[in-house]
Design goal:
elongated, mainly alpha, 71% helix
Length: 413
């Protein structure tokens, strides 16, 4: 059930108001402040005892720690963990209310199943789905979300623990480690909830271009700071990176939908290369798909002339190179779905003839032509495994033929 479902719309405004205000009340507690306060009270960890050094930002104790305080600290730790559990549950409820699973699946299918007619492209037509989305939500719900500053409270939960606080917690017994793990889970859950907020409401409701820039600057460091150790992500790194790239994808999509591009001011080739490297190193289908869509969204904004990122043609060339690189991967699990995402992104970014010279430089059309029979072969071999994604993959196959034919006629071969 979500805020646009018949079940929710059938509830009285009193009930919906009560649910949202209770979620707001739980999310309004300053869990970060509680954690920081707790970290300043815990005993010096073993490493500090041996080296006689204290983590930055924390005063060294002049007297030995009183063992009698252990029970008191454990009670505080349990209280904080209960609060974090309640906030995680509140974020999950809010996320599901805003954007149900069935609706998400439906929108993704509609996005990918669209067959393209390259001869009759009209890029002047803008996406107006956001206005329709927000208008289907009860006014009482929108007013409650606004008055309770629920979006601001979700954003506050997307902030990471200070590094020194996290280290103190990890070095102070099982209760400290539990709090550190829960705070990490809270952040990931908040990022997923933020994604659904961005997909549900229009830009003015969220707070305009300024808020979108704030969200982007909040998420970007998280996305680019996680690097796999020995090529392997830990489960918590995978969870956080999945959440961060999902939210970043929603930010870029919101920028596309609303022609709001200020959040990408200063986006550089180095940023693009970092995203490409991230995608190539994580080995996760969901994260790779998110990065593909983020990179493609940036490419679409550049190709439309909406943003100026240094030499835009160099940037588009790097994007094309990155996307073509996915086509050479073997037919492992999730391969065809990922290829469909890559192909759709290529069609979106390079649809206009203004950039045919880039296609020529990359030899994109000959490479796509050579890839086409292999793609068809993999579809035949994995047809039964595709399930509900079969139509999406088949649509990409059809659009690939049309894209090759169109670009060949315009001298890109």
């Amino acid at each position: 059930m979500n805020v646009k479902s018949e079940e929710f719309l059938g509830l009285t405004s009193t009930v919906t108001d009560l649910v949202l205000r209770r979620l707001s009340q739980v999310l309004g507690f300053d869990g970060m402040g509680e954690i920081k306060g707790f970290s300043s009270e815990v005993p010096i960890g073993p490493e500090e005892m041996e080296t006689n050094q204290v983590h930055p930002g924390r005063k060294k104790r002049r007297e030995p720690f009183d063992p009698e305080k252990t029970d008191e600290l454990e009670m505080k730790a349990e209280s904080i963990q209960t609060l974090l559990d309640a906030q995680i549950l509140s974020l999950e409820i809010l996320s599901n209310l805003l954007f149900g699973e069935e609706e998400e699946t439906s929108e993704l299918q509609e996005e990918s199943e669209e067959e393209m007619v390259f001869e009759e492209m009209d890029t002047a037509t803008e996406n107006t789905n956001d206005e329709k989305i927000v208008s289907t939500i009860l006014p009482e719900v929108c007013e409650c979300i606004k008055s309770e500053d629920l979006i601001g409270k979700v954003l506050a939960k997307c902030v990471s623990l200070p590094h020194n606080v996290g280290e103190i917690l990890k070095n102070n017994g099982e209760y400290g480690k539990r709090i550190e793990r829960k705070s990490h889970q809270l952040r990931s859950t908040a990022l997923f909830c933020l994604q659904n907020i961005l997909l549900t409401f229009d830009l003015p409701f969220i707070g305009g271009s300024h808020t979108l820039s704030h969200i982007y600057n909040l998420i970007k460091p998280t996305t680019l700071s996680i690097s796999p150790q020995d090529g392997v992500l830990s489960p918590r790194e995978r969870e956080l990176l999945d959440a961060a790239t999902s939210a970043l994808r929603a930010v870029v999509q919101k920028g596309l939908d609303d022609n709001s591009t200020s959040f990408l001011d200063g986006f550089s080739t180095a940023d693009l290369n970092s995203l490409c490297l991230l995608s190539e190193s994580v080995g996760d289908d969901r994260i790779e798909t998110n990065v593909i869509r983020v990179v493609g969204g940036v490419g679409m904004l550049v190709s439309r002339g909406k943003i100026q990122c240094g030499d835009g043609r160099i940037l588009l060339g790097r994007i094309g190179e990155f996307l073509l690189g996915f086509l050479g991967h073997g037919p492992e699990r999730g391969y065809l779905w990922r290829v469909a995402e890559v192909l759709d992104t290529i069609f979106d970014v390079f649809a206009e003839d203004d950039f045919n010279d880039i296609l020529l430089h990359l030899q994109m059309i000959p490479k796509l032509t050579a890839f086409q029979p292999l793609f068809r072969k993999h579809i035949r071999n994995q047809r039964r495994e595709l399930g509900g994604k079969r139509v999406i993959v088949e649509t990409s196959r059809t659009n690939l033929s049309r894209f090759i034919d169109y670009k060949t006629k315009h001298g890109c071969s």
